[in-house]
Amino acid sequence: MNKHTQAHWRAIITALTIVLSTLITAPALAQLSVCSNPCVATQRIIPNADANVALRWRGEVALRESNGGDGLTITSKSGTFMIGNATSGTVLGTHSTPLQLNLAAPPRGTITSAFTINETLIVPARVSGRAQSLGANQLFYVRDFTTKGITLRASYIIPISRFAPNASESIQQGATQSATALGLNSIELQFNTGQKVEIIARQQSLKAKAIIYFDRAGRFDAVWEVATPETTVGTPVYKSLSSVRQHFAAGRQTALESPTLPSNVIGIHLIRLRVTTPASEQSLTPATLRYQVVAKDKQAIAPRKLNTLSLRSPAADVVVDDDTDFNWDKISGAKAYQIELFTSANPDTLRPLTGVQLPPKTTSAKLTATVFNRLISGKTYYWRVVAFDNDRRLLAASELRALKTSP
User: Domain limits at 222?
Assistant: First the structure.
């Protein structure tokens, strides 16, 4: 082998060594999530006045590490104020303060780390005033977070007070009514039978009805979505059933009806109307109905007395965070467990605010960043653990216990 060939192979071996060293020592990013559902600010801002808003960007990053490493850095260069939605809405301004968080490298294997990035945001008076003049009742504050060459868009919803000094409910003279001008107040769901919960046979026809209350004309966009028995035993996964796009004229209420609901699979189904325009509380926590499909030759599963599931920790009224362990006693015959959180001590247990699906043998868990994104800081919530059997029926439930989120 001549000297030129030897030098060529040495160069190749050196390059491969560098590449392999990089693969071995650098943590590989498996997944990044930040405010996977829009986070919600705890305070309302007053239009036409500068406002300080405390934000907590909660997220999770899944890393795969084989041999040490230097960790990673999550950065965001700037934020953007928008109305309408967080992707293609109207831009009202920017906030140029960067954010940065350094995370240590995980141990060997794959690990998911929760993190929080705090931000003190100043919403300029001109931004909130412009949003109100266009009929918006909420701001979207949007940031792009980047790490290891991956960029993820996350958003915070900042409510705008509808009543402010010299504010008016009417659109100002010379202003054009925007697509977000609809004053949406609330949505009530029921089935076309008039019931809130239904049990039907396979292939039986059933529809949902939404009664929508509003106080100002404008555009209304929404999606009827359904979760089928494959996922309703744990964390529901919703699929689009049909889209709604209408312009509501002046009035106080109107009604919409869904397409015929799926009824070919036996088990529990959930149906909801998810609002996309205007941005509102209904967009964040859509009203949900539950119906059960049973075989034609069988009667509905009769209610039965539930077993009692005992909670161990945390104790009542404890302030919880990302590191709080939730523990409970095992229930014989349980196929799956689920932690459920409610806003009331006397809730409609068919409609938890949020929750965590857990494997059969799990008797301890932490709340995920996705759950915390649905909770408001400094507020009291109520949690319980429920267990399901092999037929996807509720097998056991614990008491409701109060918890508090950190201010």
Answer: 184-294
